[in-house]
Design a protein that fits this description.
It holds the Pfam family DegV. Keywords: Lipid-binding. One of its GO terms (molecular function) is lipid binding. InterPro entries: DegV, DegV_C, DegV_domain_contain. By secondary structure, this protein is α/β, with parallel strands linked by helices. The protein has two domains: about 5-155, Rossmann fold (3-Layer(aba) Sandwich); about 155-275, Hypothetical Protein Tm841, Chain: A,domain 3. Helix content is about 40%, strand content about 25%. It has helices at about 15-20, 45-55, 65-75, 90-105, 120-135, 140-155, 165-170, 175-180, 205-220, 235-250, 265-270, and strands spanning about 5-10, 25, 30, 35-40, 60, 80-85, 110-115, 155-160, 185-190, 195-205, 230-235, 255-260, 275. The chain has a six-stranded mixed sheet, with helices on both faces. It has a four-stranded parallel sheet with strand order 2-1-6-7, sandwiched between helices. α3 crosses α4 (about 90-105), α5 runs antiparallel to α6 (about 140-155) and α9 (about 205-220) packs parallel to α10 (about 235-250). It starts with a strand and ends with a strand.
Length: about 280
């Protein structure tokens, strides 16, 4: 049985992962002041970062409607879909709506939409897991069961080098945020089981925050030898490679991969941000 993987563009991918697992991406959209960005392979990320730096407004993101999902579903007999957490975006709801529209007309087709309860490399690792299960030639129901178990157990951790977008978005009070910036306090954040974001810890300075982030892998993770660690970064390759080296020394991950943030993840992470998922 042949399967297709579809993701939204908050799923950060390398060319190699995309080609290996034949993954198609449905783009989200970003508006900053009067500039409109489509989060696809033609996105100029440096231009996006420059627009973010020069704006006092919160970047506005918009999920794709059901039509782009539907266009892909119609091409394949069996489709697995991975989206942003439905607590963070309407991408999941629109992917499900497209599925319902499709099945009204084509009852012989199959679509399964997974809510990642995550974002960025969290989505990547779910798509990666599904791809490996397809490669193992498992059946449809077994892939679903194993993927859902993976999602339930997956951990997402991240460190933001800049608090600008948190402050602009009202997720952190301006005075509190500026005070934290003045003291060089860096938050260590985590995804929750409900698909929201929580403060896990904090540290003074980026180096200490990254060290604490690596410590947290061992504190929250289990059965690491069976897992792949995904690291996404926004213009922070040196930082991502340091995390990879230290994680490889301290933990027994089956593999460790590094990806760059695409547009939506760049908005969330901002320059210097790193996100881990496993």
């Amino acid at each position: 049985m042949k399967f297709k993987i579809v993701v939204d563009s908050c799923c950060d991918l390398t060319k190699e992962i995309k080609e290996r697992f034949d993954i198609s991406t449905v783009p989200l959209f970003i508006d900053i002041d009067d500039q409109h960005f489509i989060d696809d392979e033609n996105l100029d990320r440096e231009k996006l970062l420059e627009a973010m730096r020069n704006s006092t407004e919160v970047p506005k993101t918009a999920s794709p409607g059901p039509k782009p999902f539907l266009n892909l579903y119609e091409k394949y007999e069996n489709t697995f879909v991975v989206t942003l957490s439905k607590e963070l975006s309407s991408s999941y709801q629109n992917a499900v709506l497209a599925k319902n529209i499709l099945l009204e007309e084509a009852k012989d087709k199959f679509v399964k939409v997974f809510n990642s309860f995550s974002a960025s490399v969290g989505e990547t690792m779910i798509a990666y897991k599904i791809g490996e299960l397809i490669e193992a030639k498992l059946g449809r129901e077994e892939i679903i069961n194993k993927a859902e178990k993976y999602i339930e157990e997956m951990k997402t951790l991240f460190v933001l080098d800049s608090l600008d977008n948190l402050i602009k978005a009202g997720r952190m009070g301006r005075l509190k945020g500026e005070f934290a910036s003045l003291l060089n306090i860096k938050p260590i954040l985590a995804g929750t089981r409900e698909g929201t974001i929580t403060l896990l810890d904090k540290a003074r300075g980026s180096k200490n925050a990254i060290k604490k982030l690596i410590d947290k892998i061992g504190e929250v993770g289990n059965n690491l030898k069976d897992k792949v660690l995904g690291i996404a970064h926004c213009n922070a390759l040196e930082r991502a490679e340091y995390i990879k080296k230290e994680a490889a020394k301290r933990y027994n991950f089956r593999d460790i991969i590094i990806v760059e943030t695409a547009g939506i993840s760049t908005v969330y992470a901002n320059e210097g941000g790193v996100i881990l998922a496993f």
